[in-house]
Amino acid sequence: MPDFPDPKTMSKSExxxxxxxxxxxxxxxxxxxxxxxxxxxELLMAAYMNEESIRLTLETGFVHYxxxxxxSLWKKGESSGELQQFVEMRTDCDQDxxxxxxxxxxxxxxxxxxxxxxxxxxxxAQNGKLQLETLDMPPLFDPAQKYKxxx
Length: 151
Fold this sequence. Notes:
about 150 residues; alpha+beta; Ubiquitin-like (UB roll); four-stranded mixed beta sheet; two-stranded antiparallel ribbon; 3 helices; 8 strands; about 35% strand
């Protein structure tokens, strides 16, 4: 696959309405990817991608991301078996966000906590304080068991 064009060399019209995929990476070479269930469009997770993770996703049919904390590529679900089968990639008007549509395999958990979605808590105001309230989204697996060999 050839290198991606630099969006800074394109006109606003080309970038926003043209047919050239020119992802606008940040200063660290990353772009935010929001991953949704391909069947329900439910938001599963958000992570970052770089050029290589985009290429690997398109070439292999499984979603790859870039881990900022580990400073490395990762194939989603490689260690847990909760792979994301790639279906489609979309971008917003100025090409600085990606939406990934995927089929969540395994138990169906996209989150390392065992839940279907990483967005399993909502922010609520109680007694003048902001707190988190867990939504009705029980874990689909026990993370302590699934990741015990990874210590």
